[in-house]
Amino acid sequence: MVHRYTDAGIDLVARIEARGFIFGTAVAYQLEVGFVPIRKAGKMPGEVVGADYQLEYGTDRMERCTRTRSRRETTCCSLTT
Fold first, then answer.
1. Residue 56 bears catalytic tag
2. More confident residue, 4 or 58
3. What's the total number of domains in the chain?
């Protein structure tokens, strides 16, 4: 799973909570880049940014902490498992 991203110029790996944290941190470690956890609304400490999305019967929101932004231009990679 990691090999196809080794030369992609990725600075950060972003994954959604639960199993995403397990796979995402392992991929970030192998690529020697940072990891950005993404969680449901209200779960992250401090200042957050987020995006709303549509569900079958309503809406929900995913957020990340603003401190997780890289000082350089960031390429986030959401990997599917």
1. yes
2. 58
3. 1
